[in-house]
Amino acid sequence: MKNYNVVGQSVRRLDAAEKATGTAVFSSDFTLPGMLYGKVLRSPYAHARIVSIDTTEAEKLPGVKAVVTYKNTPREIFNTSATMTFTVPALKPVLDQYIFDSVVRYVGDEVAAVAAVSEKLAEEALKLIKVEYEELPAVFDPLEAMKPEAPDIHANCKEGKNIIGEIIKIPMGDVEKGFKECDLVIEKRFKLPIVKQVQMETQAAVAQVEVNGKITVWSTTQTPHPTRMILAKIFGVPNSKIRVLNPPYVGGGFGVRIGLSAKAEPIAVALAMQAGKPVRVIYSREEDFMASDTRHGGYVTVKLGAKKDGTFHALDLKAALNGGAYCSFSTETPGVLGAMGLAVYRIPNQSYYGHSVYTNVTPAGAMRGFGNPQAMFPIESVVDMMAEELGMDPLELRLKNIMRAGDPWCLPYPCQSTGLAECIERGAKSIGWERRGSLNQPGAKKLRGIGVGVGTHVSNSWPFCVDYDNAIVTVQQDGSIHLASGVPDIGTGTSTALPQLAAEVLGVGLEEVSLTFGDTLSTPFDIGSHASRTLYAAGTAVVAAAEDAKRQILEYAADFLKVSPERLEIKDSLIYITGRELGEDCAGTGVCKTGEERISVTLQELAYHAHLRNKQFIGVGRIVPENAPPWHAHFAEVEVDTETGQVKVIRVAAAHDVGKAINPVIVEGQIEGGVLQGVGYAVSEEIVHDAKGRPLHNSLHKYLLPTAEDIPEIDAIIVEASDPSGPFGAKGVGETGLVPTAGAIANAVYNATGVRFYEIPMTEEKVFRALSAAKNSTC
Amino acid sequence: MSSKILTFTLNGETIRVVVEPTDMLADVLRDKLNLIGVKKGCGQGECGACTVIMNGDAVTSCIIPALKAEGAVVETIEGIGGPGKYHPLQESFMDLGAIQCGFCTPGMIMSAKALLDKNEQPTREEIREAISGNICRCTGYVKIEKAVSTAAEKIREGK
Questions:
Q1: Which fold has domain A294-462+626-778?
Q2: Locate the 2Fe-2S ferredoxin-type domain: which residues (chain B) (predicted)?
Q3: Which residues of A touch B96 (CB under 8 A)?
Q4: Does ipTM exceed 0.90?
Q5: Segments of chain B with pLDDT less than 70
């Protein structure tokens, strides 16, 4: 394996000191002189027409500087997610939102907003706004919403009642014929919950509108450049007059702000325009729960057919997802669900049919894994059932059927690498797979079980969506390096790993590189942080920019050292002639005599030498990423308390093929965090609505996400099946920790109890009831 | 209700600040004293991001009325260490990859510090209990737990 100096090293994060001392600035910390505070009035009804809205009393309250409703804000239709800037023709983005509308479509929908000199005054003013509603019939379940008698939530559904955008169909081979040729077919329907990202920083934006019309927005977006495009469209302002930036830190994302941070940005801008002063809008935690994108819940059906020897021969996958009241990523999510669900196993006959459905709940959008967890809990459950029916070891069955490099698959790019077999082998060893089946004593009240789940993912969204990156590497006059990339760092370590790539390519120490990121004014266009793409795709642009700069450096150095550039290399900021003993070269001492023969030169000396001759080395990277599949196998050991129904996850061995870990500790952190979110998805997290469509889980107290007291032992295992398309062989890892976890846990619960769950989360109540029912049916 | 002057010790310094009776401690620290290391993730005492140490105990400052701090000794992340003299917890959080988005980090460190101030040899369970009120959605807590136990070791060795 090639030795690198900076790549592959677990260097301390470059943002660690700021974050450990409390000096790191986030959007919600950001203030400007004269700044006002914005607050939003939200709908108490799941579906209603606004008959009248009277803001006069609110406007009269001293200290109130702006009140906005659908009557005095742009009637420009948009979509809060970045899909309106991503969608590749011939597909068209679904646009169905206004900043405010005269119809509200979920509990929490925006009705009006106020800017005042204090947050308390703004809240007081909201209470003075008089709104008369006419309630409309509402529907909350996607299957109910497709029935003819259901209310129409939007008028734009072409494919069927309340169906959002296009129905995604992925055909491969001939499934009908395929199933006829199978010896065994299993078909099951699964129900999936609505869950939430619960990133630590709620949606936030600070907007400033200058007298010359220039707009600056500091916000929590994961995609500053596309967000600028969306704001430009809403407010009818040229892209070039808007600046969107992170301040520079973002308190997590997990998909919730790919595009706008819910509506924080446009509401802040609308208020700032009217007030003529900067306005800050920070969502409360309750607002974040109610009025920013959730993960799609819904229904997924898996039909899997196999030959007697265990060879998978046909797979039919169907999904009807709950898209909520507006389209965020409601066409892309079922697309990824299908594409990833079909890409794990080599099955000649496959088909997928999936879509989202409008309902009167909070819009569903992107969340870590993006449809893939919704595919893999059902698929991996059915694969386990198939193993049992065939009398095969679940690992053996998987190893027999998993995709191999070069296999044909449904994706529009080749499978160039897979370390899945190695993931399975190393994960099985870590968990002690051979202990399976001998974990419990007869009569035990607490039952142990071990289960597995595997999968793949993407390393960016091309060619499904627009996906390109630019980066600029500027060698400063003192030889230090400035790197500009438009991606944000939402916590994933981008602002450390990208400089690591640049340092490695340029042959300089990491301390020589500084990065500007997450700012549309000072960085070139970049799609942003989503689709596990940031390191892989933005990193590819950084490598290209660094290589371009290096080429310029070596060309200049070749003249300087009077050799051809091919003979030169850079290490520790010293440019030297390869194959020549450096010996007593003067470059290291910094005192070279005029006319002395030079065999090396420091980057510092060379850059200044160039500067005195009116030249600077500026490398530009402009790339369209390929795509590459990361692979993973999770093994979970659980303990089910048969008396309480509690599922305790004891241990998770999480083996991930990441291609190349640029910073292994950061990679482990991505895996561990994903695993714990997956544990929550499997056993405790869900948002349920009452009969009026009001969410019952709208605070951290009510929404049961894992705390430090719930953590299993996690063994994050890094497998490196290098992919030729990624920077130094790297593939995506940001989302993958969540993808196979629920499936592995559900299979472990079955292994422990003999009871199969077709619905998550496996809460105490559900497990207790299911165990009781199983007991009664066997008595 | 009229404004009052609150006097308390903040990061070793005596502070006098005008507050409203309805002000919460987190808002006074953030908005009036510019200590942005006190994060607000929920405003309901449920996420732990605003954790500070008051009279030796970790408290969620977003639900503590500011006037409750009258005469109290309050420590925030800004007061425990910095370049050149980092607190062992800050060092181990930085070195062991316990920081991702960083929004929970100050509160997490303050909860851990309140524990280690009283107990330099905490068990795994005691560490988990001490930080169980601090939500982190990025790390899975694995490296945080390790950072706290490593800091405890460092503190013990330093004596």
A1: Aldehyde Oxidoreductase; domain 4 (3.30.365)
A2: 4-80
A3: 665
A4: yes
A5: 1
Closest listed residue to residue A489, CA positions, set A747, A734, A755, A134:
A734
> Nearest-CA neighbor of A160 among A362, A357, A361?
A357
pLDDT digits (tens, 9 = 90+) for A326-379: 999 999 999 999 999 999 999 999 999 999 999 999 999 999 999 999 999 999
**Tell me, what's the pLDDT at A400?**
98
List, by residue range, all CATH 3.90.1170.50 domains of chain A.
Answer: 31-136+200-252+257-291
CATH 3.90.1170.50 fits A31-136+200-252+257-291, yes or no: yes
Q: Rounded to a whole number, what is the distance in Å from the CA of B105 to chain A's nearest CA?
A: 6
Residues B4-79: name the CATH superfamily.
Answer: Beta-grasp domain (3.10.20.30)
Q: How far apart are the first and last CA of chain B?
A: 49
- Domain extents in chain B: 4-79, 88-157
Contact A638, A451 (CB under 8 A): yes
Which chain A residues contact residue B99 at CB under 8 A? 13, 15-16, 19-20
Q: What are the tokens at A371?
A: 């449809």
Q: What angle do CA A485, A486, A490 make, to 5 degrees?
A: 105
Label residue A91 by pLDDT band (50, 70, 90).
Answer: confident
Quote the pLDDT of residue A585.
Answer: 72
- Give the predicted TM-score (pTM) of the model: 0.97
Q: Select from B44, B105, B137 the Cβ nearest to the Cβ of A699.
A: B44
Q: Name the fold adopted by B88-157.
A: DNA polymerase; domain 1 (1.10.150)
